[in-house]
């Protein structure tokens, strides 16, 4: 991915339903060029899909990152088994059998069983457990500091059917969704806008590197006491090259920042690492290169499917003739 592709991907991740025209204006290239780049990202396997879910906030859940070095002989062999856990959304394999997992918890009480599962199946004796905090800029969900956030009860049956229609193809046109659901495009557009504005829906671009041309890196930065995390994040994001895709901070590790990024060469990575190390307040920089990543459905997908099933059953009952 060149710098323009990286910028395109980052925009898509934060506004999955953005139009080609809007992308053209943001990137300063023609609409056909935008379309060609998106098709290229998809055909080369860099973008696996676009998904939609009931937002993690509306479900009262939280996100956690669990990582560590596995004692197994070959860590990629464990990926599918780890993905069978209903909380694990993605598994990444790095150097020296390092594994990094992103997971969604229904509640914090689910954390201990998940950690035990990772220790057992992932063969990671002492995993590093990181609770993703507000202020993180990640593509799979939005984390707000609001005490009164969106609620599942705010979603109507039609809202849930719209999310389901976009569940495995979040860039479907409004007209396609409207035709499927038997409502007007105006209704779908209005309800989508409401869900997005109120934090009721999450979109996710499932992105992975093309190993023939890309390197996927996680850089972990430790900062000194008293250093403002946000200032460090802003400094890193301003570095030349437009490399940074996501940044994560953690409520239980306030001195740590994690950056997820793509580069084309090891030389680019080396230069970036030296620049990060020179930022005021940074005391340690470590990194890992990831050769394999896989995404999985979680309890969020199951919950949405169950809600849609209930809506269908209710509709069938409503249409049934009165036996009297």
Overall description:
- The structure is a single chain.
- The chain is of the alpha+beta class.
- The protein folds into three domains: 3-43, Arc Repressor Mutant, subunit A; 52-146 and 157-208 and 295-314, Lrp/AsnC effector binding domain/regulation of amino acid metabolism (RAM) domain (Alpha-Beta Plaits, 2-Layer Sandwich); 212-290, Alpha-Beta Plaits.
- The chain contains eleven helices and eleven strands.
- The termini are far apart.
The rounded distance between the terminal residues' Cα atoms is 66 Å
> Which stretches are low in confidence, meaning pLDDT under 50 for 5 or more residues running?
319-324
Morphology call:
globular
For this structure, the CATH topology of the largest domain is Alpha-Beta Plaits
Radius of gyration: 21 Å
Helix content: 25-40%
Give the CATH class of the largest domain.
Answer: Alpha Beta
How many independent structural domains? 3
Mean pLDDT: 90
